[in-house]
Structure formats: C-alpha cells, structure tokens
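Fold this sequence, please.
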Amino acid sequence: MSGNKLSELPNERAQHLLKVLVDRYIRDGNPVGSKTLSEDSGLDISPATIRNVMIDLEDLGFVTAPHTSAGRIPTIKGYRFFVDTLVKLRPPKGKEVEKFQEALQASDPQALALSASNLLSAVTRLAGVVTVPRSTCMALRQIEFLPLSDRRVLAILVINDRDVQNKIISVNRDYTDDELRQAGNYLTEQFGGSDLSAVRLRLLKRLRETRESMNSMMVDAIEMAQQAFPDSEPEAELVMAGETNLMGLEGLADMGKLKKLFEAFGRQQEMLHLLDQSLNEHGVQIFIGQESGYQLLDECSVVTASYSTDDDAMGVLGVIGPTRMAYERVIPIVDVTAKLLASALKSRN
C-alpha cells in the first residue's frame, strides 16, 4: 500500500468524509461528488485531496462510483461501518415517546403486535414488522377427559392457570366416566407443571421405557394424552404494516422485484427465520443488503430488536426499507418501540 493509502480502516479524516457522504446520499439519493463533500464537510482541504481520499475509500470497498461521473455512493461495507461506528442517533423524545405509548394501549397480545407494526410503519414511512408475542412457558396445570359419542373423547387442557385448550380425540373402546377421571388424575399428577412442548416427548419416553410394567389404565391414559398434546410448538405469527410504503423507493422501484418481495412477506417463513436470528440478541440488530441471507432483501435493510418481559424473549419487531434509510432515526425508533411493547405486555399480566 502506498504512503498516502489508508490503512485497513479509514483514518479520522476519511471517516468524517465517509459519514458526510453517507448522510448526504441518504438525504438526497444522488452520487456525492468531491465539490459537495468539500462544501459539506467543514474541512479546510481541497477537492483534489478529497478525490484522493475517495479513491482510497473505493479501493477499500467503502464506496463505489455507480456511473462514470465522479460522484460516489456507499457500498454495503460502507453502510456497515457507518451504522457501527459513525452514525449519530436521534432518539425520539418527550411528547413523541408519549405518542408511542398511547399507540400501544391494547390489552390483547395480537392487537398489541398489530399496533406496534402500524406505529413503526407510520413513524418511519417504511414497512413495520412484529412477531406476535409467544408464551415463553405454557405449563400444563390440569387435564380432564369427557366421553363423547362414537368412541370419541373430549380432552380439556388447562394451561398457565387461565388458558384452556380443547381437543376431540378418537379412542379404540368405550370408557366409563370413572376411567376417564382416573386417566385425567394420573396425567395431571405425573405431568402437571411441565412445559406443554415437552410433555409429548416425556409421554413417548414413559411409554417406551415402562409400558410392560404399566397397568392398562396408565397405558390408555398415555395413549390418549399423546393425541391431546401438541407434537410441536405452535408456529410464530407475523404481522406487517406499511408494505406499500416501499413502492418506488430507491432500489425498490422494480415492480417485478417488489411483487416477489410482497409474496415473500405473505409466506412469512423467510421473514420469521430472519427475525428469529434476533430473538435472543440484546439491543438493535441491523441486516444490510446481502447480510440478511435472502436474495429478495439484497437491496433492503432490516433493523430489528427483540422485546422481552422479565428477561424472557417474547418476540421481535423491526423495520424493512431500502439500504438508503435514515438509520439515525430508524435505529432508536425500533429500540424504543421494543422497550415500550415489552412494558405494555408486562403491564397486562
């Protein structure tokens, strides 16, 4: 590397010019030239010196020239360095935070998630996305069986003291009320207090290990319970708002790409997988362009934060927009909204 080349990371002057370039590009959307940088930077250096710095930044992969013009735009690497090191955050304050709190007044978790996604969309003018709060512990409190006709039984599961799940199961013989009561009592005694997602695995293990020593009532009870308990955790739900805000934005003007992106939003699985990467992380996570791992989001940035109650992660919320987004505003908005949603959920318990 020549004597006037930058080291692996930009020096202080180059960092300042990179910040000015990214700020200006986010604001205007046009490649930024040396003359503009000279005017905006406040540095007493010549356009020729600035051009040399830009050449070095381009060699290091922080900026690129999209056309033959002298103007440059940030690369994904440039954005990443900007959000990790250079961005000056502008958190919402006072009355704006109060408005956020007022928008998150619903008592139902699903309604709260929808309110949060609408809030994120309205404030950032981008797409807001929120996973519906998941119950971190679904503990079995009681199980009862009631006889129905045609060798069917109603299984009643009481979960977390107040939630009730009903499921009709088929059995291979007729049972008396007393037999069903004994089966329910046995299962409540054996598995009461256990997390619902783990009960079915324990049932299978119990049946496999001790079937020969069980009496027929215990075997029948476990076989009925296997039908009653879920064999997997319920899939997370996702609510989105403001997808149409993305139409026509920088890098997202191609209607073909936009249509595929909206279709991916509808399928949800890809977005859920991406958001789940942030579930157990602290603070705001930012996926810029190809960092998301999803080709449809190559021209987007996703800013996320998990929300939790009593240190238990309940879900993730965030904003999807073009890589050219106002990170100084979006990052703190996502952070504050996650904290306020967690507070709203905690207050309803």
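The longest strand covers residues 312-322. The CA atoms of residues 129 and 205 lie 39 Å apart.
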